[in-house]
Specification:
This protein has 18 helices and 18 strands. Helix 11 packs antiparallel against helix 13 and helix 13 runs parallel beside helix 14. The strands form three sheets. A seven-stranded parallel sheet has the order 7-8-6-9-10-5-11. Strands 14-15-13-16-17-12-18 form a seven-stranded mixed sheet, sandwiched between helices. The chain has a four-stranded mixed sheet with strand order 3-2-1-4. It folds into three domains: 110 residues, no CATH class; 224 residues, Tandem AAA-ATPase domain (Rossmann fold, 3-Layer(aba) Sandwich), CATH 3.40.50.10810; 235 residues, P-loop containing nucleotide triphosphate hydrolases (Rossmann fold, 3-Layer(aba) Sandwich), CATH 3.40.50.300. Helix 15 links the parallel strand 14 and strand 15. The radius of gyration is 28 Å and the shape is elongated. The protein is α/β, with parallel strands linked by helices and 585 residues long.
């Protein structure tokens, strides 16, 4: 086994990275390494440095007769290409470092060419990952293993999270920092704990809280959301991290903020940087340019050259041909993107996924406070008849479900906004009017339609017509007010609240999963970690992150109705015990 793996596939190397080319005897300057700035510095004839700055605008500096190249594998390759025409003398003390940099550039080039020649499939090592990848996800893992800095841009619902976790299992790149949007922090915590094994045990996960840095406990995985980056700007680059994963990296599409600056410094300090996004290519070129700069600085040149060549002119933010830009990013190994249509044969017609969200426990406590006297009565009043007791149980259960729905509503809407921004057409189901009112407020920018039982027949028909004729991409529907609707335009069904009956969910899903639905339908169950959702998850069998065939596809039977009532009763009993314990605490 050679210590230079690229030599086994040397034929794949481009000419400028081959070992056997002959350099002219004349040299045009020197090449040295600046350890402070971590860059290669060319000093030489004005013709050489002027050529560097003309071909590679990012090398321009304030000094005459000097050009600086970022010490990145791609830029080292560009330097090798430049030296075919203008040979440079490498400073003797930097020669070993240069030789290693060239070897790394050759290895990266071979990996890129291998990936372009034949999509490989890869499974995580046995004992490191609890799960099985579909074949396109195995190809995604192979892609991530071939590239240290890249963007996995699969369409939403194709398992970017699972592929990133499989990459962690395969590379053991711990400790790793995962940065998701705020509403997905808990989901990453849960998914990492479910899928990953480190030395046969679950990983140690620490969720970073607050803007003020503190001494972090030893962990394998750190999770923090984007809003905290600015507070940790100076601390993060000094952490001994092996990798960083930016989930929904389009969050960094705007520069000029402390968040973006912190992310840039963090990415620069890590060996492995992975971005995940289902909506990576924007018509506004400035946004994708900013995102790519986090992954690979000046891969698309500086802003002036990018806007001149890819957009409508200096300073323009509109890409002329987004498809061409996407092809270039894929060809260069910086991005992999698959759509649902491309992998449809591997997907079941209907996919059900459970996503755990954050929630506001203070809102939950405030909404539950008025019902405490009823809880006390349920516990102590021995004169209650069976019917009165059942009615009281229903009131307590409904109040807990409503409080849970309202407490997580802002996070549900954040999730739905991400779906809508990714081009999905969403049916959002809930139960309580108060929860629907929160959705109306949070999603007003998307002009949602509503079918909640409060509308007239004409209003209901108008809401359906608006959704089916593309006047809105989100329709909010009451869980038990969807019968008879045919809404096959939907690509996603989202349950912001749950029902005790599995068949209610199945029937709600079938509003979209109808004849004429040609896509693989995504059904998201958004659950909070506490409140009524925990008990309802147990009753519905939602304790796994992906499930099939557990929901039932037939009308509610008498036995199921009895089961649902029993589960609701047991939930009230547990709820009473919890509230009583809180009062005594």
């Amino acid at each position: 086994m050679t210590d230079k793996p690229w030599q086994e596939d040397a034929a794949l190397l481009p000419a400028y990275l081959q070992e056997n080319y002959t350099l002219p005897t004349r040299t045009y300057g020197t090449l040295s390494y600046n350890r402070r700035s971590r860059c290669w510095v060319v000093k030489g004839d004005p013709s050489v440095t002027e050529m560097c700055k003309r071909l590679f605008p990012g090398t321009a500096g304030s000094k005459r007769g000097e050009a600086r190249f970022t010490a990145h594998r791609r830029m080292v390759g560009e330097l090798c290409w430049l030296m075919l025409r203008f040979p440079l003398t490498v400073k003797p003390s930097d020669k070993p470092l240069w030789d290693k940099a060239v070897d790394d550039a050759r290895s990266a080039a071979v990996r890129r060419e291998r990936a372009a020649l034949m999509p490989e499939m890869q499974e995580p090592p046995e004992g490191s990952f609890n799960g099985r990848l579909m074949s396109f996800q195995q190809e995604g893992l192979a892609f991530l293993l071939q590239h240290d800095r890249c963007l996995l841009a699969d369409e939403m619902g194709l398992g970017k999270t699972v592929q990133a976790l499989a990459w962690l299992a395969a590379t053991q790149s711990f400790p790793v920092l995962i940065i998701p949007p705020a509403h997905l922090t808990r989901n990453w915590q849960e998914e990492a704990g479910r899928f990953l094994l480190i030395r046969g045990e679950k990983p140690r996960i620490h969720v970073i809280r607050g803007l003020k840095p503190y001494d972090l406990p030893e962990a394998d995985i750190y999770v923090m959301h984007y809003l905290l980056l600015r507070g940790w700007k100076e601390a993060l680059p000094s952490l001994p991290l092996k990798a960083v994963i930016f989930d929904e990296i389009q969050e960094l599409r705007h520069t000029g903020t402390e968040k973006y600056s912190a992310a840039s410094l963090l990415a620069e300090s890590c060996e492995h940087v992975i971005g995940l996004s289902g909506t990576p290519i924007y018509n506004k070129g400035g946004e994708i340019w900013n995102v790519i700069n986090i992954l690979d600085f000046h891969f698309l040149g500086d802003w002036e050259s990018f806007s001149r060549e890819w957009c409508y002119g200096y300073g323009s933010a509109v890409v002329i041909k987004p498809d061409l830009l996407g092809d270039y990013l894929r060809r260069e190994g910086l991005m992999l993107r698959r759509t649902k249509q491309q992998v449809l044969k591997e997907l079941p017609p209907k996919r059900r996924l459970v996503q755990e969200l954050d929630w506001n426990d203070k809102v939950y406590a405030r909404l539950m406070e008025p019902i405490l006297p009823q809880v006390l009565r349920w516990r102590t009043d021995g004169t209650l008849t069976a019917s009165a007791r059942a009615m009281l149980e229903e009131q307590i259960s409904q109040r807990a479900r409503q409080a849970t729905g309202v407490a997580k509503a802002p996070y549900v809407c954040q999730f739905v906004r991400a779906l809508l921004e990714g081009g999905e057409k969403v049916l959002l189901f809930a139960h309580h009017h108060e929860v629907m009112d929160e959705y109306k407020k949070e999603l007003r920018a998307f002009a949602p339609g509503f079918i909640t039982g409060r509308e007239t027949s004409a209003m209901k028909d108008r809401a359906v017509e608006r959704f089916m004729t593309e006047k809105t991409d989100v329709l909010c529907i009451s869980l038990r007010a969807a019968s008879g609707l045919n809404l096959q335009r939907a690509t996603c069904v989202v349950f912001g609240e749950l029902d005790w009956s599995p068949a209610v969910h199945s029937q709600a899903e079938d509003r979209a999963h109808r004849i004429g639905q040609e896509d693989s339908l995504l059904c998201y169950y958004l659950v909070a970690p506490q409140g009524s959702d925990a008990a309802m998850q147990e009753a519905l069998g939602l304790k796994v992150s992906q499930f099939v065939g557990l929901m039932g596809d037939t009308p509610v039977s008498a036995a199921e109705a009895e089961f649902s009532a029993g589960e609701a009763r047991r939930h009230v009993e547990r709820l009473v015990q919890e509230l009583a314990a809180q009062q005594h605490a």
